[in-house]
Design a protein that fits this description.
By secondary structure, the protein is mainly α. It has one domain. It contains 2 helices and no strands. The protein has helices at 7-31, 36-60. The longest helix is centred in the first third of the chain and has 25 residues, at 7-31. The protein is elongated and about 50 Å long. The chain starts with 6 loop residues before the first helix and ends in a 6-residue tail after the last helix. It holds the Pfam family DUF465. InterPro entries: DUF465, DUF465_sf.
Length: 66
């Protein structure tokens, strides 16, 4: 990912990555083919993406106190 990217586009890409990770976790959990270590790794990556999404969303959305 490039630092020159539009923040809204970056946010959309991060949300898509987060959704894909969620689907992969559910697919592996349902199939029973994932071990606990692999699921933990995927969940950790998903959580890191969620944190990046929240940080970027805070930067994009103005903090208006009414």
């Amino acid at each position: 990912m490039n630092d020159d990217d539009d923040p809204a586009e970056l946010l959309a890409r991060l949300k898509e990555e987060h959704r894909l990770l969620d689907e992969e976790i559910e697919r592996k959990r349902a199939s029973g083919k994932a071990d606990q270590l692999e699921l933990a790794r995927l969940k950790k990556a998903k959580l890191a993406l969620k944190d990046r999404i929240a940080d970027l969303d805070d930067q994009i959305t103005p903090d208006i106190i009414a």
